[in-house]
């Protein structure tokens, strides 16, 4: 009879280790997606009425492409809305509203709350502006988000800002 420890058909085994930052586990991909969806829905609820008030959507019903001026106003309104909704949470806790609700947070490489202005500029504003590059912007953003499937679960915006997203204790 053969020794069960030396079975050539047995699947290889390796210990599974969970990567941590500052003693906190990395946030699950699904939780990060959930936080992004919550943040997006909140911003839609804030930005839609502002867009109507400032005439951003005036040409939609007639099929007219918004001009550069309208797009610039829309971008500024989006930035102001993002900061109004998330600025306090980002500066105090390193979290957006969605991240706070789902108990995940943005930290630096050492597990500490990152400095909020550089983090906002590198993680949010830079990538928000990339979205406005015709044709290429959407592709770059797709690649940005697909980076989450790497082993360290960091998107390109995490890499440029030097941040990680961790799961907070319940």
UniProtKB/TrEMBL annotation:
It comes from the Bacteria. Residues 27-162 form the RDD domain. One of its GO terms (cellular component) is plasma membrane. Its main location: membrane. It holds the Pfam family RDD. The chain crosses the membrane at residues 33-60, 72-93, 124-147. It is found in: Cell membrane. It is a multi-pass membrane protein. This is RDD family protein. It comes from Metapseudomonas otitidis. The lineage of its organism: Bacteria, Pseudomonadati, Pseudomonadota, Gammaproteobacteria, Pseudomonadales.
